[in-house]
Amino acid sequence: MALFLAGPNNFHPDDVISGEGTRLYGGRFVPVGVRAVYASLEEETALREVTIRKSALGGRGQIGVGEYPRMTYVLSVATNRNLDLASTIPPELANVVRLCLRGKGYSVSQELAAIWISEGIDSVVFPSATGAGRNVAVYLANACAGTIVVRNRAEVLAALRRPPADKRGR
After folding, report:
1. Residue 121, Cβ neighbours under 10 Å: how many?
2. Dihedral sign, Cα of residue 93, residue 98, residue 101, residue 105
3. Entry pTM
4. CA-based angle 42:120:126, to the nearest 5?
5. Domain count, the chain
6. 91-102 and 107-118 are packed helices; what angle lies between their axes, rounded to 10 degrees?
7. Where in the sequence is the domain holding 27, given as residue range(s)?
8. C or N: which end of the chain has fewer Cβ atoms within 10 Å?
9. Alpha-carbon distances, residue 129 vs 79, 93, 109, 167 (angstroms)
10. Measured torsion, CA atoms of residues 48, 103, 119, 79, in degrees rounded to the nearest 10
11. What does the pLDDT look like over 124-150, one tens digit per residue?
12. How many CA atoms lie within 13 A of 167 on its CB side?
C-alpha cells in the first residue's frame, strides 16, 4: 500500500496516477519528460511530505497543516523490477543517496533515475527527505498496465462531488 496526499480541488484519481506532473516538471529520481507516480509508503511520511511542500510553496505564515486541504489516495502498487534505496545498501551508494536527498536541486537523482529507467527498473523506493519514512516513484513507461490502482477511488470521487463545507456550518 502507498499513500498520496493532494488538494481535493485539484486532483481527480485518474490525474494522480497519470504521471503528468512529473512529465512536465520532473522531481526527485524522475527526470523531466518521464511519467511517474510518487507516493509515500507510510501515512506519517505522506503527512510530513505535505507539510514540507506547503511550507516550501507558501511559507509558515499561511494556514496550518491541519487546515491544508487534502485528500488521501490509497494506492496499490505492484512492480516487478524495484530498486530499494531505503534498505541496506553499499556505503558508496548510500553516500550518493544522501546527496540526492540533501543536495540542492534534483540533477544527480534525475541522472541516476535516467540510467535505472533505461535498464527497465519499474520503481524506486527511497528514504524521505523529511528524515523518516519511505517514498516510492513508479516509472509508468516500465511498469505493467494496472501496476497502480487507486483503492479508495469511489470515496475520493464522492468527496470531489460534495460542495465545499461552509465554514459557518462547522
Report:
1. 20
2. negative
3. 0.83
4. 25
5. 1
6. 130
7. 2-169
8. C
9. 23, 16, 12, 34
10. -10
11. 999 998 888 999 999 999 999 999 999
12. 1
